[in-house]
Write a structure and sequence with these properties.
Blueprint lengths: L6 E3 L5 E3 L30 H13 L1 E3 L7 H19 L3 H6 L5 H7 L4 H10 L11 H12 L7 E2 L5 E5 L8 H13 L4 E4 L10 H7 L5 E9 L5 E11 L4 E11 L12
Parallel strand pairs: 3-5
Antiparallel strand pairs: 1-2, 4-7, 5-7, 6-9, 7-8, 8-9
Helix pairs in contact: 1-2, 5-6
Amino acid sequence: MSLGGVVSESRSGRRKAAAVTLAGLAALAWTWRAEPAGAAFVPRPLARELRDLAVDCLAVGTVQPALSALSEAEFAAIVEILGRLISAYGSCDYESFLALRAGDLESASERRAGDLERLREFGRELALSPEQMRGDWVATLGAFWSVYYERPAVARFLPEHTLVELHAEGLGARSLESWRQSFVALRDRLPGSWIQHDLCLPHRRSIEQVARDCGPLRWLDLELHFETFAGLGARLLARFVWDGVLREWFLQDAASVYATGDRSQRHLIL
């Protein structure tokens, strides 16, 4: 079980395992409630300032197709996704992290139940008490989040470098595996060291199911540039897919790419 990532590639292109250290961090006063967050979880609306920052990312960044070609629903969905990502990693906001996965919390806790003790081991390394980790996978991950993020992973986002590509063309003649590799190609075109994230809360339906029964596959590739508190340039690359049966966007793939040297003391949890 990994909370960080599974593979790292150096600037010179040499691959090696990325053993993301999760120990040695001080505790925060901010904590997450320990109760299970199941199907009834309803996040608070995105704050106005976060919505405005997400809109700014679209206004000054690069968007394909052009903003004028997006439907109101597409525009609103992209703003929501960007705003939640900015809040989660710029403000240590676990609720925004969950908001992007609201429909998957119950199933994820069931699927990750076998990993719960390992997560609690990580928590004990950070001085979390058994009482703080008495909940299910989602609640225990929240307790871990609260101490792992002694401060946010992101010092500031760079809206002018935002890249957003909305795809509605489907797979065409490609196989699903070829489509998966297209995300790898996006990641590998960026210089620097990368972490391919092992998603903590997977979607409750497989990509095979979604591709089979939702008509032409629709997905969103986005790239958010940011700076760490160490002054390092970094990017979050994420692919969200539209589940037409459940009528929601879900995170399918994610990678962090750090332009120089040591990646960060606070890696992104996805």
